[in-house]
User: Fold these one by one.
Assistant:
Number 1:
Amino acid sequence: MIMRRCSKTVPAATGILFLLLSALPAMAADIALTNAPDAIQFPPPLASYHDADLTGVWDVLAHRAQQEPFNLWATLIFLAAVMHTFLTHKFIHWANVLAERHKAKGQPDGSGEPAPACMSARVLHFLGEVEVVFGIWVVPLFFLMLWKVGRQPTLDYLNHRVSYSEPLFVVTIMAISATKPILRLAEQCLRLFARLGGGGPGAWWLAILTLGPVLGSLISEPAAMTISALLLARQFYALKPPPRFAYATLGLLFTNVSVGGVLTHYAAPPVLMVAGPWGWNTWFMFRHFGWIVLVGIALANSGYYWSSGGNWRGCNQTRLPPPQFRRTGTAVLFPCG
């Protein structure tokens, strides 16, 4: 049943993904007509839409799609990429089904040698990698730009109008943060705070979710996310917590990291964009936003920590030493240790 359903859905899913690419021969004829360097100003200035008198959001969007149809096509590609992101688990499932069916067939000659890898399963597994989803959909967007905008405006936009500094910085800082020396240093620093609560899973959970996101104000939010996620995988998710508890922890991590970079004016990219023009410094950030974020993180973590006492019983705590509370005031803060 599953195989028959997979055999029907797999071609449909892959066909939809590469539907735009099938129009490349037709695009090639039109690209030559829009190759003049000064044919199109892309992207058009907002003032060129002349929609200042429109008040409704839908009216503005419809007007701009009518003035520049490429806006509609680009929006559809973006929505397709978002839908693809939420369907990545389906691609992984289909890849596993095809791989198992291919493995079950084996070698027809009975030689006993392992069957060659199933190419369809590998393609579906690649399409199921959430990290490459938007990179995949950039390909049809690029050819659509060539078709609708023109070769030279497209190249000018990609080479001169788009800044690649921030994505390169994020990739570099996340790669460096995932190295063993950085992780070991972060783990040793957080262990000092986890020991205040006995060094158990609960103490590690609180230490990572409270102090880890705050590192975003010092070493950037991507680095704080990488370090906190890897330490949670080692100190918390390795204990096999209940699914609801595991997802709630992940949500807390995302929320805390998203606001943990506002204690300084130089680490978080959104803050960095406005700190210079508005004259914000670190003291201004901490006085107006930082202390509020610290209180919010502490309240969110402690609130869920106190309400999830039963979830710790679902963790396989045999993989880590049991909590041993010290007879100090910290035992009040770390009751689940």
Note: The CA atoms of residues 107 and 113 lie 7 Å apart.
Number 2:
Amino acid sequence: MAAGLAAGRAAGAGLAARAGGAARAGRAGGPGAPGGPGAPGGAGAGGARAEVAGARWETPVARLVRLRVAGAAGGGGAPAPAPAFAFRAGQSVEVRAPGGLRPVWLSVCSTPRQLRGEGTLDVLVRRSAHPAVEWLLGAGPASGAAELRVGGGVHATAAQARGPMLLVAGGVGVAPLSAILRDAAERWLERSGGGALGTPPLGPGPPAEVAAPAAAAPPPGAPAPPRGAGGGAGAPAGGFRATLLYAAEEPGEHALLGGLGEVVAATGGRVQVRRHVTAAAWEGREGTWGGEWGPVGREHLGRALGELQAGGEPATAFVCGPPAMADGAAEKLAGLGLPPERIRLERWW
């Protein structure tokens, strides 16, 4: 069983959970058990019923499933003034499928804005033999309603989302980090008058690659973005900016690239995505996916932190992935001098 840690600190060779963290147990995109409730939408905040509104395969083993929540804006009824069902970007939901199947905990990969505006939320579901997962992967609009309950998970405070953010994802651990990144970008776009991000479409075909921001028009008054996959040493300094270091075994196992590419393009060089592939068969073939071969190491973390903190503003790191990967990244970040309260950690298996 997985143990989610909202904040990590070095403790000998490992990490210990800090008291008061919004920890959760479970797998980002797979079955698990709940941890402590997170506000809003914890155990006392009520649940909701939802139907599958659409889905698409992001990788050969992971599917994005969109749920339409009853009673939410655009979700089959007039929204309540203070809706009982709400979540923070990065939190998880318990999904109980029709028929009393054993529930599954999944990380939400969409933002609260999508729920408020369209009455939907997205979860990234990794294929498994869990009965609720099998229902989600095979369900359609006429498959009945599931019951939802919001649990814990990592999330960014308002202050953290306004500053530099380093996100480190392994496999389907990208789900909550994608939500955190998109939510922070939406807030920045709202403050800067740079427009709004739409809800990622569920059209047919493989997900889009991460687009280079050089092809996008930056918001008025923003400096021209540098070449490459977004940001880097030439990215705008000050305020919100983010780097996602995203590792997977195979290039085709990088999920949510279409939505990530939209964020990169819309933020004018403030967001970058660096893809890592770890399988030995891909060594020397980096041009295939435009990233780096090998796991995210100390040098990658150090370079990203240096870029993000070049203006003197401290960064906050968010890490989610398999235990060995997540713990290793958190220990390296601590070794690079990042304070414990700025390392937000979630583990899954």
Note: Confidence is low (pLDDT under 50) at residues 1-45, 75-82, 211-233.
Number 3:
Amino acid sequence: MSELASAGVGAGGGDTALSAAYPYSKGDLLAVKPVADITIEELASGAGISRPTFYFYFDSRESVIRALSEQVADGLTEATTAMLDTREGSPESVIRTMPAAYMERWRREGPVLRAMVPLYESDPEHRAFWDTITGRIADALAASIESERAAGRALPAPPDARDLAGAMISLLWRSGYELSLSKPSKAADARMVDTLTIVLMRAMYGRGPST
């Protein structure tokens, strides 16, 4: 059973459960305090509920992160792979959608995504969950690489398409992490997307975007 389902989402208690997660999803607390320093009292107070009510839906701070991870992961996967599924447009426009969507999600969900890092390292269940999510994104990218190679547009192997996709996803993750820690700037975000597009294009096609 998913964390959201066990918390009552979709079964009559969803509004309260998500309300308890609200301080996390908004980033009010995570933007200024690491997970280990946030108390249950702060979470409950921020959601306008009592401590016992909080524990009715979540058994720990970490369980809130796991619940929110499901929401963030779905959006991240869909945003990142949408264009890869259709491959409508030029190679550059298709490739550009990946870092653009990925960085936008990191700007919006940065505190939650960063909070998932220590949980990934300490919680096997959460690690397996997130590996599945990143695996889906990497699989979609690998399929796109193989399709472009078969059409003679992308560089041939090596590396293996799945290995290349994994390296590209790791690059996006680290870049997104760093971006989320920086001061919001449309100009800086645009440069990051431009840079990542060039790197991904060169890795996949052996050339940068057309000028």
Note: The chain has a mean pLDDT of 80.
Number 4:
Amino acid sequence: MSSVIEGAEAAISSGGFLEAEQILTVLVREPCREDDTRRLRLLLARALVGQSKAEAAAPVLTLLGQGAGLSARERALATRMQATVAYLLNQEPGLGYCNAADAALLAARETGDPELIGNALFECARSGANAGDEGRVATAREQAQVAISQLAAKFRLCSLILRRIAISFSLSSRQERAAWNPPSRPGMRAKTQQAYRLVTLHTERASRDSATLGQRARPTTRR
């Protein structure tokens, strides 16, 4: 089962949402361990939301919410998808979607993952634009800027610490100095740069939504 789950994850990561949905729809009905069922449902929800199939994703997410054993990351993913489903269904363009987005942000902050936080901030901004709440959009934009600043500070701190260690211990070997030099650690740097791009992307998307959805959803004043 683990190899099948890994295959479904790879398909979703590469954009093969329909293929993953077809496989997962069958597998989720088969008897298996509770943790495997949870992972299958989460992947199925991701495949459905990736295709904007909100009506099909809603009951899957409900079952996930009712179950136990979700990790902080899984809970954050599920909660964010619930917010997306609320937006796609457009049943409650005001308070309902805003509450779902707030819950997604709270769950994302518990993980400390910049990507999850950025996705949740986008939902907060879009829910504000959808409800015609410019203040909510501005708050989400400010929080995104804070997240970017925190990432920059962490990266600078890591760089300073590693350089200080290299100098303090007088690493003479070129290979040793390179091992402590942040630019030579592509994994860490790539992850930070990816987080920058993700949060910046969500901020830009939120700004565009504010200019379009906000105008469309703004309530008219009764006379």
Note: Residues 134-168 form the longest helix (35 residues).
